Amino acid sequence: MVTDLKLSLGSRCIKYLLFSFNFFFVITGIILLAIGATIHAVYNDYHHFLDDKFFSVPSLCIVVGAIIFFIAFFGCCGAVRESYCMIVTFAALMILIFILELAAGISGYALRNNAAQAIEEKMKTTMKEYNNTQEIRTVWDELQHEFECCGFNNYTDWKNIIGDKLPNSCCINRPNCTIADKESDFHHNGCATSFTQFIKSHAVQLGGAGIGIAFVQAIGIWFAIYLARTIKNNYETV
What's the rounded Cα separation, in Å, for the pair 36 and 102? Predict the structure, then answer.
């Protein structure tokens, strides 16, 4: 009788480990959601300087994190009920998530390598619009204030755009500073290097989270496949 189906001691250990792993999957889902949402919000603050591809990776992490909650249902129910179909479904879905997380991780590292050129082009383009658009002016002022920088390469970049007068966000001790003022009155370092490193560091966080969680979840996939094979073999011998 199917109702009399009993798993071996080793298989039962796998069963309970799989159930425990599903709780861990929920935690990893929360982690991916949190990292994806946080970095998406950070990128959104500077979306004028970033291409759409920078938003694809955190968006993918958010989607994957949400899907994990749904997938964990099959794993928990399948393990408790010793359901071959549910465990196979869980394993198949986890393999798909594993692939998506690897893709997110690899994309994160790829963005890190390609970030400089893409960001520099956007920054140079928007800088020229500083006097023409209030939105661009606000974004640049926030960037220079936050990173304590001035201009793209340095403060002299503003000379061809707004003359000798510097944006107030470049000034340190007083507003309405100019290029002719003493060095302690304004920031001298450009924003390109510091902002690019800031974006790269977040891309690395996405890459590390995606790849790290993917390989940990591979253990859960192995548990699911092993348990499914054991259940199938026991069905065939009953």
Answer: 15
